[in-house]
Amino acid sequence: MAKARTGAIMLALPLTAFILVTFIAPLGSMFMRSLYDPLVADIMPETVAALEEWDGTGLPPEQVYALAARELERAREEKTIGKLATRLNRDTSGLRSAVMRTGRGLKRAGGPPWSETLPAINAAWGEPATWQALARTGARVTPVYYLNAVDLTFGSDGGIVRQPEERRIYTALFIKTIRVSLTITLLCLAIGYPVAYLIAHSPPRLSRLLLVLVLVPFWTSLLVRTTSWIVLLQQQGVVNDLLVRFGLIPDEQRLTMIHNMTGTLVAMTHVLLPFMILPLYSVMRGIPAVQMQAAMSLGASWPRAFYRVYLPQSLPGVGAGCLLVFILAIGYYITPALVGGQSGQLISNFIAYHIQTSLNWGLAAALGCVLFVAVLLLFLLYDRVLGLDRMKLG
Amino acid sequence: MKLMRINPGQWALRLFCGLAFLFLIAPILVIIPLSFNAEPYFTFTRGMLELDPDAYSLRWYEQVIFGEQWQNAALNSLIIGVSATVLATVLGTLAALGLSSPALPWRRPLTALLISPLIVPIIISAAGMFFFYSSLSLTQTHAALILSHAALGAPFVVITVTASMAGFNRELLLAAASLGAGPARSFFRVQLPIISPGVISGALFAFAASLDEVVVVLFMGGIEQRTIPREMWSGIREEISPAILAAATFLILIAVLLLIAVELLQRPPKKTE
Questions:
Q1: Residue B21, exposed/middle/buried by CB under 10 A (0-12, 13-18, 19+)?
Q2: B contact test, residue of A214, A221, A234, A290 with most B CBs within 10 A
Q3: Is residue A335 domain-shared with residue A226, that is, in the same domain?
Q4: Which of A132, A307, B25, B136 is 20 to 30 A from A270 in CA distance terms?
Q5: For position A105, what pLDDT does the model report?
């Protein structure tokens, strides 16, 4: 028995190690990024260390000014000052130009006392808030990205405050993502339930044919299906052309169905519908049709027989399908990015935006971690109710 | 349908499902004729509707088949897809054998770990992989994409092979051993042929997943690592040309072939065997 045990472990070991390195470690590195941000501390180590001695009120002593001037000068030479400026600006608006100007100004600036020279180059160095920002962002381990992910930030006194109005977007975005995912789940259920019912209770030959109609989109590339919806829904697209040709709408009033929320809802429902139909079908196939006949022969009307006999037995499929569609929807990126326009963007689009465009990796990681925890909780629920190891494909 | 007598309700169900199937299939079918459009539009021209042969052309196929950009993309998709599939299939099959053994400790958490790449939304996996490989300065390499796609594809192999192991009679291994076969020999001669439908369909799932994956490629791939879906992504975003419809038609063809292959493999074996 011990030999069998060792054998089984040896077989499972290579993939376990592989997944730990290529999947779990990346997740861990995302978690790290969301909490650990050494950028400011690496560029201005001595200033940050000296600021730790400072009590945070008024202006720091001359010695701190001198260190800051030296390290800013070095950052300019090493061309890291841009990153520093961006990072400080994320904390306090306006610091980007202050830091960049200081960098340029230091070249022809005089010498000590730096507590007069620096504020002369840029007035920001005469403000306690600037030094507080430097001290705050100098902490290598920081909860600030999680605060930002829920629209909070550090105030100038170090307390936690709400973001300024124009930066308050993520709570609304999380709520919108959940609302859109729920809508898509319900749309998929409304369309998928009758379809799965029809497939499950058709004669075998027909049932197989209908199942193929579900499996073809399931196997077709996501990008292909998203492209199809652009072709169909755009202003000069097939649907608008048909509506105009049949005189349902005038040519100059073509409907805007893409690059907005409608586009996201339609295309994502299409993409996720097979994930609803397949689990529903596999549960419904096991419900004997004769039970409904029996209920109706005993005098139940069709709706009553359905409600009392059929529906309860199909609920495991409903649960599996809904949870699967909801979880897939909540993390969807490609489809909203291509057909969602401005209004159809979800939380994943902002994660991608912060990775690729704004380069605010800490915030991207924190948003990712929040989403990850949400999905994890949903899957624990799924496992509790239905069992993960019963997951099947195709 | 013997479930109920023919009545208006049943016709309503059929009509509703008919529309639902139209919704599922029509968007995919509409791509195919449009990819033969002679004009650079995404919509049916008057000539196409009148079935004028001049309104149809193969110019977009020419562009996709002979264009250097698309050729490179196809090559990259193939290199990354095949390497990732081989890696995922070998590791996944071994792991599934281990998971099917009753002697394995912590089976449930281990299964959850091994299929977790399938469960975590791709945006999160891709973000994590991006941070991880950028801290190793390995972004914009084929190796990082192959490893990532292998991790994303392995759960498919684990699931399909575990499923086919459920029907595997372990006494056959004892029989092979009693006839003098070593573990390797009995695996390749007895076990593998029996579970091969599971192995192959897992590999097909993994390959399809890699062929369709674009988020990881977007985050980590450079110009040198552009794959077919990556090329389609910029085609949709930047210069909309029916060339992407021609590429899409190829992908639909591949999807149908993969579907047929998996369906044939998952048929229960004939009783005569």
A1: middle
A2: A221
A3: yes
A4: A307
A5: 83
Please, what's the largest Cα pairwise distance for chain B? 74
Mean pLDDT across the stretch A124-149? 89
Domain count, chain A: 2
Is pLDDT of B143 > 60? yes
- Residues of chain A positioned with their CB less than 8 A from the CB of B17: 194-195, 198
Which whole-number Å values give the CA distances from B179 to B176, B193, B195, in the listed order? 5, 18, 21
Does residue A8 belong to any structural domain of this protein?
Answer: no
Are A129 and A186 contained in the same domain? no
Q: Find the Cα–Cα–Cα–Cα dihedral A23, B216, A332, A388, rounded to 10°.
A: -30
Q: Which B residues 107-136 touch A at CB under 8 Å?
A: 108, 110-117, 119-125, 127-133, 135
Contact assessment for residue B248 and residue B35, using Cβ atoms and an 8 Å cutoff? yes
Q: Please tell me the distance from the alpha carbon of residue B39 to that of residue B47, in angstroms, as a whole number.
A: 10
Contacts of A181 in chain B (CB under 8 A): none
Complex prediction ipTM: 0.89
Quote the pLDDT of residue A170: 93
Beta carbons of A30 and B124 less than 8 angstroms apart: yes
A137 pLDDT higher than 80? yes
> Residue A377 is part of a domain; what is its CATH number?
1.10.3720.10
- Residue extents of the structural domains in chain B: 59-266
Q: Is residue B266 over pLDDT 80?
A: no
Answer whether A178 touches B (CB < 8 Å).
no
Q: pLDDT digits over A339-364, tens only? A: 888 888 899 999 999 999 988 999 99
Q: What is the DSSP pairing of strand A152-154 with strand A160-162?
A: antiparallel
Q: Which residue of B has its CA nearest to A378?
A: B119
Could you tell me if A92 and A129 are in contact, meaning their C-beta atoms sit under 8 angstroms apart?
A: yes
Q: pLDDT (tens digit, 9 = 90+) per residue, A223-277? A: 999 989 988 888 888 888 888 888 888 888 888 888 889 899 999 999 999 999 9
Give residue A94's domain range: 40-141
* Domain B59-266, second-level architecture: Orthogonal Bundle (1.10)
**In the Cβ-directed half-sphere of B145, how many Cα atoms lie within 13 Å?**
29
Inform me whether the C-beta atom of residue A177 falls under 8 Å from chain B C-beta atoms: no
**Mean pLDDT, rounded, for B165-186:** 86
Does residue B271 have a pLDDT over 50? no
**254-273 in chain B: CB under 8 A from chain A:** 255-256, 258-259, 262-263, 266
Contact between B248 and A221 using a beta-carbon 8 Å cutoff: yes
